[in-house]
Amino acid sequence: MNNLNPLFAVIIFLIAYCTAYVINLKYKVNNLSTRYESVDGLRGFLAISVFISHASLWYQYIQKEQWASKSYFYTQLGSTSVAFFFMISSFLFISKLLNTGKKEFNWKAFFISRLFRLVPMYYFSVAIIVFLVIIISDWSLKVGVFEFLHEMFLWGTFAVIRDTSINGFGLTYLINAGVVWSLPFEWLFYFSLPVISILILKRKPSAFYLFISLVFIGGYFYVNSVHVQHLLSFVGGILAAVVVKYKPFQNKDNKLFSILILVCLALIIQFEKSTNMPCKILITIIFILISSGNTLFGILKSSTLKFMREISYSIYLIHGIILFVVFYFGFGLEEAKTLSASEFCVVVFLVTPVVVILSFVCYRFIEKPFMEISKKC
Questions:
Q1: pTM to 2 decimal places
Q2: Helices 183-197 and 207-223 meet at what angle, rounded to 10?
Q3: Buried b / exposed e along 334-355 (16+ C-beta atoms within 10 A)
Q4: Contacts of 258 (CB under 8 A, 6+ apart)
Q5: How confident is the model over 324-334, as pLDDT tens digits?
Q6: b/e per residue, 57-69, with b = 16+ CB within 10 A?
Q7: What is the dihedral of CA 129, 85, 46, 67, to 10 degrees?
């Protein structure tokens, strides 16, 4: 077996699923019955898919120092999963706006909830990254104090302004597998919602929130390029929210729609990137069908997948760090090169339960407490 064999992905997922199943037997997280249970099931699958993609990439990096995959399948596991994450974000919050009706949308509660949901775990992961870089740097600054503080500021803003290395360590991006790139898009969407809501809400947002929204949008595009291909993922989620709200067709667990989802998935892996427009259309079709209630022959109703959805943010942020620690500190990059493809696969299989367990610990002791605090604000 090697890292490009689809069986590699299947085994990792089964190990992750079994680990999550055992944890979920003892520790139930929240109410796993929600209005959009098929979307919850999908989200539980996505974070593990990103982990699988990056695990495969690590072998390529160890052998040839190239962070790129020759496999469309493994590339799409990562990029398509992120596209789905973007769609889920826009679907959930546009649905909230559509369902607000004549009531006033609580913008203060919304931004507080986003702040407490995303920031604590992100800062925790950044703290680990900084700690690892300092160890690699022999506990000394390789750049000036002000340059180091500037780097901390950029990381502290979710790399919205720009990404950067830390303390002159050129492989900083490798520590968390570069997952930070997607988070600025999430913040852009959140801060765009007051402006978007003008087209949806009967009771428009106050001038204050519109001002904050416009300032953030303007500042974001002043320092960043316009990545239309990623913004289209959010549009896909908006389309799904409209479809679910006005129900142009009955979906639920229609087997024909489940087959259509599988066909679309098979077509997606024929494309090199999820940013290809036909590929983006296929991803959008899949998401509209799933958000409309299709559970893919009942698979997405799994309580274990819903459990994995709860810990998905932690999985997303720390899986790269765990892989880095194993191969950089555990083996050493030069020693890791001597691993055969089969040996590499076995190492990743052994790491997989660790990723799930530590993600659950992070969820329980970092994410969940802060989410509870946000409800009291």
A1: 0.95
A2: 140
A3: eebeebeeeebbebbbebbbeb
A4: 294, 296, 297
A5: 999 999 999 99
A6: bbbbbbeeeeeeb
A7: -50
